[in-house]
Amino acid sequence: MTLTLTDVTLTYPDGDTRLTALDRVSLDVPAGTLTAVVGPSGSGKSSLLAVAATLVTPDHGRVVVAGTDTAGLGRSGKAALRRERVGIVFQQPNLLPSLTAAEQVQVISHLSGGAARGVRSRALELLDAVGLAGQADRRPHQLSGGQRQRVNIARALMNEPAVLLVDEPTSALDHERGAAVLDLLAGLTRDRSTATVLVTHDLAHLDRVDRTVTMEDGRLTAAPAPA
Length: 227
Fold this sequence. Notes:
The chain has about 230 residues and is α/β, with parallel strands linked by helices.
């Protein structure tokens, strides 16, 4: 399964005119590959993620998420698609202070109406996959910044998404921890065959990704597609 944006245009009201956030953007992200989107602040990177996540409907163009053309979906249909097929890793983990690491991950399944059986064991498996074996019962204040971001990633993977959208995951981390998070995302993308899009300002670790594209003034400059 892939993520495909074709000729996507998105505008916002700006006084008496409209501001173009995305200008005929096309992007194809195959399963099992990690695409990094770089570019200056205000260039349209966040808008690209919002459209890919079906949180914002573009003015024009086509968005296909894991084989589903989102143009035919209403609000509830898009919400269901996000729950079932899309994982989102926000810049700030926003973990609930009272919940343990395992509970932070489990709550995603509960919110999605998933069966209770096996939820904790799956949460523990994911925490192990992101390098947090033995940390399941720790609360956010007992975890480092890098560990909290790993919980954030495990939480996004709970419903086995086909598409993983990641927003600036290393912005609050030092160089070493940032590199570790990028290594983790690259490995998880391959192992779980997700179509992963990473928005980042950090150009130091792009050797971990399969493809880098640049966003500027709402337009995307694409490098060759992954082999």
